[in-house]
Design the sequence.
């Protein structure tokens, strides 16, 4: 089954090392006045990805969604210029940030919008290849429920992978309960931002059969290399190397080399990964988390529910 990138479907084994939560273009709708949070520059994005490719990166999941100024055409141009595969997402970060777009929409209308977005509107037109949902803090709000249920129903209908935003891991189990009620296979779910929630919470999520993305790698103010070493040792000890994926969720100019920031999107592969391997995390486990798991998780047949073009059996591989 192929991975659905913004430049078309590719064979899953073409993806290579894939960072499973990045930002290249976009920024939060609710904070228009904070320049550091907005990534408007396609040239900068292409330079950042070219560096990532130099460190061995083959693909990224670009998690800027509909309340984050997503640009499918922009991402397609950046992918062509850098040679790095980009998978884009349909959906929202949370009920609060989605509210201006969904307050007067039914869940079914949101499901339709997501499913339409997952299908190219025409030959060569970019489409998303994954679904995003998420929630805020404390307890699921009515709008959070709406975002999560719509994402879940779109997942069941399309077969696309479903990834979530949590506030530092809060409400991860509540998200999973909503998805379970809607009939989503946990293997098609990946919960995000669990790094600082602690390894016990990570294990609780993994016990449901869902995947996790440790996506705060390189934000040294939060977790050090030693912290990740401890986390990964435990998760691998408990047998979860097939359910963990990795990334650097750098939604700020000050994290990206192309804007003069540090440590750059190539940090994970160039510096963090070798440091973890030197501390004893097996290179084979890194290969699972960076290559095999993203390839398996992101691939699906677009026509599995009778929608869209038939890509089964005859995969169109783009460079
Ligand atoms: Zn993000």
Sequence:
């Amino acid at each position: 089954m192929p991975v659905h990138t913004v430049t078309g479907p590719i064979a899953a084994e073409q993806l290579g090392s894939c960072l499973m939560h990045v930002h290249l273009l976009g920024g939060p709708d609710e904070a228009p006045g904070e320049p550091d949070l907005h990534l408007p520059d396609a040239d900068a994005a292409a330079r950042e990805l070219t560096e990532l490719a130099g460190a061995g990166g083959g693909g990224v999941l670009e998690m800027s969604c509909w309340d984050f100024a997503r640009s499918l055409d922009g991402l397609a141009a950046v992918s062509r210029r850098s040679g790095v595969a980009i998978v884009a997402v349909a959906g929202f970060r949370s009920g609060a940030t989605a509210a201006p777009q969904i307050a007067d929409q039914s869940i079914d209308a949101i499901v339709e919008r997501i499913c339409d977005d997952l299908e190219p509107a025409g030959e060569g037109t970019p489409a998303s290849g994954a679904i995003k949902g998420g929630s805020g803090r404390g307890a699921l709000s009515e709008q959070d429920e709406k975002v999560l249920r719509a994402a879940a129903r779109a997942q069941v209908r399309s077969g696309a992978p479903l990834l979530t935003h949590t506030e530092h891991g809060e409400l991860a189990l509540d998200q999973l309960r909503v998805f379970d009620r809607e009939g989503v296979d946990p293997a098609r779910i990946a919960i995000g931002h669990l790094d600082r929630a602690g390894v016990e919470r990570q294990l609780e999520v993994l016990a449901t059969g869902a995947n996790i993305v440790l996506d705060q790698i390189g934000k040294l103010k939060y977790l050090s290399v030693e912290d990740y070493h401890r986390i990964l040792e435990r998760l691998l000890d408990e047998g979860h190397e097939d359910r963990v994926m990795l990334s650097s969720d750098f939604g700020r100019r000050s994290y990206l080399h192309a804007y003069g920031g540090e440590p750059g999107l190539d940090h994970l592969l160039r510096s963090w990964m070798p440091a973890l391997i030197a501390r004893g995390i097996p290179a084979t486990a890194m290969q699972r988390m960076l290559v095999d798991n993203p390839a398996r998780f992101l691939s699906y047949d677009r026509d599995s529910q009778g929608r869209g073009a038939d890509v089964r059996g005859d995969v169109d591989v783009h460079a």
Notes: DSSP finds ten helices and ten strands in the chain.
